[in-house]
Structure prediction request, 940 residues.
Amino acid sequence: MSAVYGFTGKIARIDLSAGSVSIIEPQEEVYRKYLGGWALGMYFLFKEGLAEPDKDPLGPENMLQLLVGPVTGIAPNPRTAIVTKSPYGFNCITLCGGQGGANLKFAGWDGIQIVGKADKPVYIAVIDDHIEIRDATEFWGMGTEEAEMAMRKKVLAPIETSGSTLTESDLTKKWAKLRPPKNQGIGGKRLASTWVIGPAGENKVWFANMVTEGARAHGRYGSGAVAGAKNLKGIVVRGTKGQKFADKKKFLQIMGNIQKREGTSHFWRTYGTAGASVHEANIVGGYPIRNWQWESWADPRTVKTLSGPFVDQMSFVRKQACPGCALHCLYPARISSYNEMMDETITDMPDWEAMGMVGGNIGYLEAEGTDPGDPYGGTFEDMTENAAKTQYTTWFSDNTGMDFIEGGALLGLLMELRQRDLIEPADLDGIDLKWGDLNSVKAVLEKTVAGEGIGAVLARGTYETARYLSRKKENDEIMYYSMTGKRYAQPAHGARSNHDRNALDYVTVVRPCEHTGGGSKAFMKNPIDYDGAVNGQNFNAAVNSMVYCLFASGFWGDEGNVELVKAVTGWNDFDKKDFLKVGERAYALSRLFNLRSQNIKEPRKEWDSPDMFPARWFKEPLPTGPYKGKTAFNGDTAKLFDECLPQYWAQRGWSRDKGIPEEEKLKELGIAGIAGNIAAKLRS
Amino acid sequence: MADSNQDEQISELKNKFQQRVISRREFIRMLTALGISVSAGGIFMDMASATEKSGNSEAQSGYTIIFDPAKCTGCMACAIACAEKYMQEIAPEQARHTINLEFSRIRPMRFQFVDFVNVCQYCELIKWAEGTEQHPCEAVCPTGALHRVKKGEGRGGYTGMGYMTVDRDMCLGIDTCGRCLEVCEDQFGSGISFDPIEGKAQVCTRCGGDPECVKACPEEALQFIPVQVNGRYYANNPDHAAELLYKKMFNKERAL
Prediction:
């Protein structure tokens, strides 16, 4: 590629089977069309032929991609995207913050692609242009926190270390006497970044993830299992080349303005997403409570346990930011508890998804003997202990490298089945899993991580577990309690009140059941604003292709996305339409990928159908809260799936019968070449 | 909130500041008194024009940089500001389009849940204890490239606070030497870095008494304050310092 600013023009392709590294240099046109992250990753998945259903996500043929975008680097708000084929069979597009993306860019790479499978545990060390596949036997089995620190120690750039040149004559007598053993004193700096998997990834738990900086995870869709299947424990990157900008001054100016706006955000700068609990979720009826039996506590005192102010006062120690960001939305915390197992555990937050999925959803908040419809009967002491339980479960998930959204949904399912006597402790190898019981939660998660006994089933996630149990118990009712959309767990945003998320939102997002689709507000309008919804989705997909932070993108103001891309790349004719087109491409490719990779012939029956979504959304009215009595789409699934969904597809230029992007659309987007055949096959 | 009356007051303050009637510090203090936040944000805009600034009317002598680990978020603003300033000086050609943090003499390092801001601590050694009054890096430098500029001397715009600097023509570079790094990391800290182009040593000059990093910090975590006591006072490698921080903040020990 000719010199384009912003990008480095190089992607490393690492074959673990062969132990070889090659370099891909995409054309500038490719970068313009796909930017990076999500869209670029999908482009390569298609080129690799991974959309074909016979390609095993956990086989050596799958490709794990770690990608950045044009603005990733000095900041603002660099992130990384992992794009691969999920163990669940659909696409895995998952993003994460931290300093790693910047390091990868500084090392001179727009991404890393990993194929093949190593015959023993390895990690990949990237020091600028130099890439090594190294033995990771000593790190195998370690939790993510420990593995990350140990691995980073091993990677130093040449300018950080030198051979010993000091002689006694250089030193004073005192210094000579005090010298540490040779070379022991050198290497105290930590400038590399690391992504690692925990034991869950090693054991190929479907919802295992890759974690960086102890608590930041490429959370969903199972990237950790893909890495584990390749015997890849981690990736360490140290870059020393810096980042290039077409118009540096303008870039710094935009960045300054973004920071200034960020500085005014009380929400982010006070508790981060931990503030969402009381502030939003409990009010709009979107708090997952006991596997979504409730979405709002009758007594607002109950929810205070997991509110920003409470967890802050009880446990937050400091705050952490990604490069260039003034939102610092991650709050490292220290648990205080009377329970020795939990006490002194160092973790982060809980953030909103954790508060929902491993807080309310598994019954940690209510006092003994009460349910979410009752007045709160607990004391201050109960509140601290219950908040600690959520934090501890979050820490356990992070440290073993597991997604707590899928994990929380799985626990919620099992707990509700136990509540309704649909399963017995014997079905869980003797564990009596009751609402809010931390010890049994831990026991179940440990089994899941290790894949022992029932754990081997649980490791396949919520939907597969429900299917297994309904077959084992010969009871179809069990499927009713699987709170999954398209075989994947519903995150902590309710679909019934129509004030948090709309059911059509969950039905249309191409990353199954994602909560950051971007169309929420437009979907919740009456009548539905299809144009706004599609634009919102395209916008978020484009932001994820630019690999920018969705939180921080709220502070772009008018200059935002396009001006940033222009300042960095120098593409002066790049406009808002081009930007949204990137998202549209990402959407069309992901849709085709999902249908093809799961060999879906009749999407309306096999994929976009009511029975792929929780029946509870449509049948069970909300029992409490401001939206008491509401169901999703007023229970009208026919309207949702037969009327609204085709209309949404039409808005996108996709066929009304199957939701396949029309030939015209593919041509307009310039992706007919890579996806045209698959689309034609799906259409017929 | 900014009504017209306030705007007038601000522009008056600005004038005074530009005419050097009041110092930058006073300017900021007065703005704050008017209810204008000057802490978070806006730093990068300042940086863009940093190179156009002339002179330092109020550079401080005998001051050092300290950081508050509870306030620091590890956002790298300090490193970006430093890198931007010194890359312009060292490699102006490359700096036209590039920012490279390796040119920064101050580096936040992210350990598990703690961020440690690594910067030279200006060891002032006690002769009877150490055998020399020289800075350790200065003492082991075979060419005298790494040296202290006497108070009142030095380059224009710098107050000559007795700052440390590296004569790049004399420095042998990391490939053949690296003694300064070695002695520093062995026993004192890790205040030396090397530029990625020629591999020559870099050390914090405190910008001659008016450090960019302190101005850039959006969280007011960095301070430039007078410090008399030094020696091995702050001597710790980043990893050891981070372990201490971890112990202090989370009351638990961990290898980092």
In short: Chain B has ten helices and nine strands. Residues 1-38 of chain B form one domain.
